[in-house]
Design a protein that fits this description.
By secondary structure, the protein is an alpha/beta fold. Helices cover 28% and strands 15% of the residues. It is built from seven helices and ten strands. The strands form three sheets. It has a six-stranded mixed sheet with strand order 1-5-6-4-2-3, covered by helices on one side. Helix 1 packs across helix 3 and helix 5 crosses helix 6. It is globular.
C-alpha cells in the first residue's frame, strides 16, 4: 500500500503532490468526497490534509511532505484507512454476543504452525483480558465468526513486501452467525513478536475498533514496541463490551498457559496454571 518515497531536492516535495493526494484519499482524509472532486486539490487544502495525517500519526504537523512524513508513508501498516471505519447506520461496530469464535489458516514465513496458533491465541487473549468477551477457537471455518487467512498480492488486497501487513473486516451491523475475513501478508518477514502485535491489532478491528492515535496498538502503523492494548485501546474496547470482572485464563490449543512470557522484551504475566 505504501510506496518508497521519491527523491527530491526540496523539503516540501519529497513525494509528488499527486501521489500524496492519492495516498491521503485512500486513507480517508477527505471523508465522503469522490476522487473526481479530490484529485485536483493542491495548495492550502492539500497542506491541511497533510497536517491531519501528520498529527494523527505522531509527526510534526508542518503541512509539508518532508523526509519525516515520507518515511512514515513508506512504513509497514494495516491495510485499512485511518478514518471512515464506521457503521453505515451510525451505530457502534460490535458483536451482539460475548462469545466470539475464530478459525485461522495462516501461513507466515519464519514461523511454524504451532507458533502462529499460539500467537493468535495470545493476541485474542490480550483483548479478553481487559474486556468482557470470550474468544473460542473452533475446528471448522464454516462456524467461525472470524476467519483469518494469509496470502499475497492484489487479489488478496495486499501489496509487495514492506507495505500492507494485514487487514480485517469490522463487525458493523452484524448478527451472531456472520463471518468476518482477515488477511495476513505472506510476503513479509515475520517473527513471533510481530505476529502477536499485528494479529492483536487486526483483532481489534474484528471486534469493532477503528484506527486510533499514534502510540496506541490500534494506530495504523506497526510499532515493534507496542504489541498489546494500551490505555486508549482498552478504554475504547470497554466502551464496546464492558470491563472484564474476572481473570481471563490464557489457553492455546486447549492448554492453559501460565507464568510469564516475553514479547518485544516486555514481560507479559499470564493467568497462572491451576
Amino acid at each position: 500500500m505504501a510506496r518508497k518515497p521519491t527523491k527530491s531536492v526540496t523539503d516540501s516535495d519529497v513525494i509528488p503532490p499527486a501521489e500524496m493526494l492519492r495516498y491521503l484519499y485512500n486513507l480517508g482524509y477527505f471523508g465522503d468526497l469522490s476522487w473526481n472532486k479530490v484529485k485536483s486539490i493542491r495548495g492550502a487544502d492539500l497542506a491541511k490534509a497533510v497536517k491531519a495525517y501528520q498529527k494523527f500519526n505522531g509527526l510534526s504537523a508542518s503541512g509539508r511532505v518532508n523526509e519525516e512524513t515520507a518515511h512514515r508513508v513508506s512504513r509497514r501498516r494495516c491495510g485499512l484507512p485511518d478514518f471512515g471505519l464506521t457503521s453505515p447506520t451510525g451505530s457502534m461496530c460490535r458483536w451482539p454476543m460475548k462469545e466470539i469464535s475464530y478459525y485461522h489458516d495462516i501461513k507466515l514465513p519464519g514461523m511454524t504452525q504451532e507458533q502462529i496458533a499460539s500467537a493468535y491465541d495470545i493476541a485474542f487473549g490480550q483483548w479478553a483480558e481487559v474486556c468482557d468477551i470470550n474468544p473460542k477457537r473452533v475446528e471448522r471455518k464454516e462456524v467461525a465468526n472470524i476467519y483469518a487467512r494469509s496470502g499475497r498480492g492484489k487479489k488478496n488486497n495486499l501489496d509487495a513486501r514492506g507495505g500492507t501487513l494485514a487487514w480485517s473486516e469490522l463487525p458493523c451491523d452484524v448478527a451472531s452467525h456472520i463471518q468476518l475475513d482477515q488477511m495476513f501478508d505472506e510476503a513479509e518477514d515475520w517473527s513471533f513478536n510481530m505476529a502477536v502485535a499485528v494479529i492483536c491489532h487486526e483483532l481489534g478491528h474484528a471486534l469493532g475498533l477503528g484506527h486510533l492515535n499514534f502510540g496506541a496498538l490500534m494506530a495504523p502503523y506497526y510499532d515493534p514496541n507496542v504489541s498489546k492494548p494500551q490505555a486508549e485501546d482498552i478504554d475504547e474496547m470497554i466502551r464496546l463490551y464492558g470491563k472484564r470482572t474476572a481473570p481471563y485464563s490464557f489457553t492455546s490449543a486447549g492448554v492453559q498457559l501460565g507464568g510469564e512470557i516475553v514479547i518485544n522484551g516486555q514481560p507479559y504475566v499470564l493467568v497462572p496454571k491451576t
